[in-house]
Amino acid sequence: MAVASPISSFVFVIFSFFLIPATLSIASESPETFIVHVSRSDKPTIFTTHHHWFSSIIASLPPSHHPSKLLYTYHRSIHGFSASLTAAQATELRRISGVLSVIPDRVRFIHTTRTPHFLGLADSFGLWPNSNYADDVIIGVLDTGIWPERPCFADTGISPVPSTWKGICETGPDFPESSCNRKIIGARAYHRGYEAGLGKPMEEIKSPRDIEGHGTHTASTAAGSVVANASFYQYAKGEARGMAIKARIAAYKICWRSGCYDSDILAAMDQAITDGVHVISLSVGATGHAPEYDHDSIAIGAFRAAEHGVLVSCSAGNSGPDPYTVVNIAPWILTVGASTIDREFPADVILGDGRIFGGVSLYSGDPLGETKLPLVNAEDCGSKYCYSGKLNSSKIAGKIVLCDRGGNGRVAKGSVVKLAGGAGMILANLADSGEELIADSHLVPASMVGQTAGDKIRDYIGSDSSPTATIAFQGTVVGTSPSAPRVAAFSSRGPNYRTAEILKPDVIAPGVNILAGWTGYTGPTDLDIDTRRVNFNIISGTSMSCPHVSGLAALLRKANPKWTPAAIKSALMTTAYNVDNTGKSITDLATGEGSTPFVHGAGHVEPNKALDPGLVYDMGVGDYVAFLCAIGYDSKRIAVFVGDPAMVDCGALSLGSPGNLNYPSFSVVFDTNNRVVKYKRVVKNVGSLVDVVYEVQVSAPPPAVEVSVSPSKLAFSRENQTLSYEITFSSVELERVGGATKSAFGSIEWTDGVHLVRSPIAVEWREDSMVTM
Ligand SMILES: *[C@@H]1O[C@H](CO)[C@@H](O)[C@H](O)[C@H]1NC(C)=O
Ligand SMILES: *[C@@H]1O[C@H](CO)[C@@H](O)[C@H](O)[C@H]1NC(C)=O
Ligand SMILES: *[C@@H]1O[C@H](CO)[C@@H](O)[C@H](O)[C@H]1NC(C)=O
Predict the structure, then answer these.
(1) Quick one: pLDDT band at residue 413, thresholds 50, 70, 90?
(2) Of 122, 331, 506, 543, which one is least surrounded by beta carbons within 10 A?
(3) How far apart are CA 401 and CA 367, in angstroms?
């Protein structure tokens, strides 16, 4: 992953040292880690355990001058092992009977409190009191570890560790037994894959301690305890709370300085399932397009989790606004995009000619005065992106420097300006990020402005003979201007790269300027020169939206203990909203226009409504296997998920199109041969009334598409009854195929007068049939 692309650079701003160093490239003859999926039923009886069998398989491989090494044996998340092998040994391994697939290990990357209030959560009504704050629900957070001494992990007022918990608190350097309590009930560290990938002994401390901050942030967002008077310096002051203040945290450290390896992720998922977690929160993902499901360890691990009733909630990725960028797209994963809340940190840029442009900042040092300082464009001083070592000090000393967003990290630009003697910085968006404003804790007085303002300030610098400016920091402002939520430009988008018939992402949730706990090891910017240490930090990313939804899932699980992970997901999706706090459709910050289901999925989560969704679209492992059959996987490929090809009979599973999977949303592809698409769905009545009639409304028909639903009334008469319906989409404007308009959006709603069960519809017209790869 290079830093050169301005679009992708955002992802690693906060987490910039997660970039792969060049040292990770692997010489062809040196050993590499492979993840090996093995058929469960093929174990010869002479081996007492699978571990013996796997060790003997490895011992039987042709010798190499590197000793081949078994890294992990997997039992739950997959059936198989990971080992350090040469390419020749891997080839040999593929020939052994019972071996289903041999996949090279891959590195993944990590992708915070007014948010409870913004989500409508309250102590007096709705999901919080109805779930007792997810009292004994356990959330497994797979991340960079945890900094346990933070106030958000205090366990006062929390009942004893649930008897269902089977995990441990793995002690290690700087991680004594006392690191765990009734809040952090377990912690483990996984680094064998990482160390093998590095090819040399790792220098980091091998314990669950978080030296990065990301894991502490995500864990406290999902399940942090109540902390009075929390803030980041003077910003975002107030009571901080995780989503599920009584839920328990099990921290699995899978991410290290240069990334998170599939082999370690699988080992942690395997363990988390065995340990008895109820929800897995994973703010980590592939870069680039989503991998094939059977090459995607997160998808494979999540399948097994679903089989054990564990809900897996993942970040959608920070690679927006390009289409096809959403990752973690398996239909059994809850995929979460990022949006803003109604809290801003304004920092006005005031120009010498009196004009004022609104920006944002979390700068906390000495402010600039009212006196305006000389203003320069970084492009005229050596580097428009303000790259390290590229700014001419004599041109910027004592001045405010306008730097363009992209290329390198946002806070890194500020530190470059500071080190070169600049007095301040204006960070201006380019077209990629539009009007998306991310507040950062810059080391110089700095404000980030949108593209429109940036262009005007640049023009001013170019046309005025002695341009000047200052920045006025306004602290924390809560309100409806600008509107909220708005979808972050960085939030990864659909369509679904692998299976166009499944809409992704699923939902959006708060992911911009989120306050949550932080490590004591590094400063809030993660920059070496940042010597500040904070209890709380404010950062942004789909990494921050995922744990919000993980926490909500924990609450829903407690409130409805019999619901499957798919039912919880359905409840969150069909009750999500699409209208912001000014009554308009939710804005996409990349375009300034209304966002579409490819951007926001079913919409923004609304937890109190998810508590009582009326109907749910339920699914189980059998449905997911049928889905894999429908996308053309053979039994050997499906065995990677289910453990044994003998367990798969695609002939008996007649889903037809993958679009018939009982998903709570609709994604339709028309092409020249295919102008009518029919999907089947089954809904289950989970409302309090047994006798109830739901009627459908095509509330928002997509333009140029006729939508009909049959039957249009569903009369329920028994508890937990399921009823099915068929929905038909007909393209009425054939010329759209190959024309300019390639997509359209709408929704249907089932209602009994009390509940509104809404499903979004995304329609695409494609030149030819490239429906499923
Ligand atoms: C929180 O801060 C306010 C004002 O700064 C102060 O009056 C109050 O005592 C503090 N509360 C706690 C629990 O520290
Ligand atoms: C830096 O700017 C000064 C003053 O404008 C100029 O004389 C000098 O050549 C520049 N240095 C470089 C390396 O461009
Ligand atoms: C309906 O489902 C709930 C929760 O799954 C269960 O407790 C109850 O026994 C079911 N009722 C019937 C009649 O199956």
Answers:
(1) very high
(2) 122
(3) 16
**Cα 714 to Cα 710: distance, rounded to the nearest angstrom:** 9
State the pLDDT at residue 739: 56
Kind plus residue range of the DSSP H or E element containing 273: helix 262-275
Whether the CB of 65 sits within 6 Å of ligand 3? no
Tell how strand 255-256 and strand 259-261 pair up. antiparallel
Tell me, using a 6 A CB cutoff, whether residue 562 lines ligand 3: yes
From the list 474, 466, 501, the residue with the least C-alpha distance to 360 is 474
Give the amino acid at 413.
K
What is the identity of the amino acid at 114?
R
Phi-psi bin for 559: left (phi > 0), alpha (psi -120 to 50), beta?
alpha
Quote the mean pLDDT of the chain: 90
DSSP string, 406-467: SSS-HHHHHHHHHHTT-SEEEEE--TTTTT-------SSSEEEE-HHHHHHHHHHHHH-SS-
- Quick check: 685 and 721 in contact, CB under 8 A? yes
Which phi and psi angles does 575 have, rounded to 5°? -105, 0
- Mapped onto helix, strand or coil, the DSSP state of residue 97 is coil
Bin 652: left if φ > 0, else alpha if -120 < ψ < 50, else beta.
alpha
210 is an active site residue: no
The per-residue pLDDT for range 419-437, each reduced to its tens digit, is 999 999 999 999 988 999 9
Instruction: Name the catalytic one among 8, 297, 543, 667.
Output: 543
Above 60 in pLDDT, residue 5?
no
Instruction: For residue 214, indicate whether it is catalytic.
Output: yes
| Whether residue 688 has its Cβ less than 6 Å from ligand 2 | no
Contacts of 616 (CB under 8 A, 6+ apart): 563, 566, 567, 570, 571, 574, 664, 683, 684, 686
For 207, the token pair is 């314990």
Whose alpha carbon is nearest atom 9 of ligand 2?
392
Q: Which ligand sits closest to the CA of 237?
A: 1
Mean per-residue pLDDT, 334-356: 95
DSSP 358-387: --B----SSPP-SS-EEEEEGGGGT-TT--
Structural contact between residues 686 and 614, judged by C-beta atoms closer than 8 angstroms? yes
Q: Among this protein's residues, is 42 annotated catalytic?
A: no
When pLDDT is cut at 50, 70 and 90, the band that residue 50 belongs to is confident
Q: pLDDT tens digits, residue range 261-302?
A: 999 999 999 999 999 999 999 999 988 899 999 999 999 999
Is the CB of residue 543 less than 8 Å from the CB of residue 315? yes
Q: Is 581 exposed, middle or buried (0-12, 13-18, 19+ CB in 10 A)?
A: middle
Residue nearest ligand 1's atom 6 by CA: 229
Locate the ligand 3 atom nearest the alpha carbon of residue 718 and give its number: 13
What residues contact residue 515 under an 8 Å CB cut-off, 6+ apart?
Answer: 112, 113, 114, 230, 231, 232, 235, 236, 240, 536, 537, 538
Residue 87's H or E segment, with its range, is helix 87-94
